[in-house]
């Protein structure tokens, strides 16, 4: 071992003095209020110390009844190994293919049982669609703060790593606000600047899907720049969409203002005078959520051109034996032209070529390439009740094959806000992949009822 023999031996006392001096220097440089945990602390370590310890370990500690029932301990010594890619004790969640925390990244968010249990924004969906999943968490306490939930979401989307800091935790943990569960229907107050649209109340017949259009003419002679869209609806809505009309729509098809134009007669037959107008619709905004408050990125607005009215499209599904009441409130918050540096463009990808054989599971794929440069900053899907999974991948370029959107819930598909935006150069595009389970005895095709099917991707982007 000649190298060892040539290495001078430093006395232990000198090493201790050197370490002490280095520690003192670091202390003086960084300041006495700098906590060691803030130095290169991984996101998992932050979640453990700042979220799980104060909110969860009181119940999920070794020896407690809650830990025995769930077979889950969340103290720092075992929490990671008991969470990531581990099947849950809950039989229903396990049968649905969930794990406690999935390391699949974006695709794993909705496969993570913990996310189902803490995502306060989707609490209504959790309780109504998955009552067999047990209690919402934290048990008997207010939901986690919005910043805590967002920190966990970003960590899961990044693949739930143990030793990596995936985002700056400080601004997220500074958000102490909490989701407040909405009442059955909350009417919206008119915006301080912008347009308030009120639709209904209207009746939806028993065991019937009512879908109609309602034209709201242009407000004034000036166009609008919309920076925020608020929508609130009574229960039972399948979707609500605001459309404009294409410039080449024949004058004869121009609808009258403030008339309900049902696409079906009370007997269920289609009204083709109403259907013909749909060929000239241009998506403006919309949602399938009972309540939505979407804000465009800073400095970005969506333009409603001068002279353009809005064709409101409401679709309610009533599967009960009694009539229900529908109602929709919309607020379009606007800004002055000087406050918007860039104008959002609408992304609308619609696959009409749908044929789903009976008693089969079918996956449809459709690729869309673009001739211009696009910075995509928001996406959400639209399908009907047979959809099991809806994925969107980048097609072409250095990020080809990257998953950028996924939905498992056809009724309340997620709205993906992409920051920084997904940049697609000319020749690149998006590949849509949707999987459907047709449990019926008939072939399903594209159609307007929730019992038919669709494969649509909505979104917004910046051009140039």
Structure overview:
This protein is of the alpha+beta class. It has 3 domains: 38-173, no CATH class; 182-337, Jelly Rolls (Sandwich); 341-464, Jelly Rolls. Helix content is 19%, strand content 33%. It contains 11 helices and 20 strands. The strands form 4 sheets. Strands 1, 3, 7, 8, 10, 11, 14, 17 and 20 form a 9-stranded mixed β-sheet that branches. A 5-stranded antiparallel β-sheet has the order 5-2-9-4-6. It has a 4-stranded antiparallel β-sheet with strand order 13-18-15-16, with no helix packed on it. Strand 15 (387-395) and strand 16 form a beta hairpin. Helix 3 crosses helix 9 (146-157). The protein starts with a helix and ends with a strand.
Shape: globular
CATH topology of the largest domain: Jelly Rolls
Radius of gyration, taken over Cα atoms and rounded to an integer in Å: 27 Å
Instruction: Please give the number of β-strands.
Output: 20
The proportion of residues in beta strands is 25-35%
- Helix/strand-derived category reads alpha+beta
* Percent range of helical residues: 10-25%
Give the C-level CATH assignment of the largest domain: Mainly Beta
- Through-space gap between termini: 65 Å
Any idea what the CATH architecture of the largest domain is? Answer: Sandwich
Sheet with most strands = 9 strands, mixed
Q: How many domain modules? A: 3
Oligomer: single chain
Tally of alpha and pi helices: 11
Low-confidence stretches: 1-39
Mean pLDDT: 87
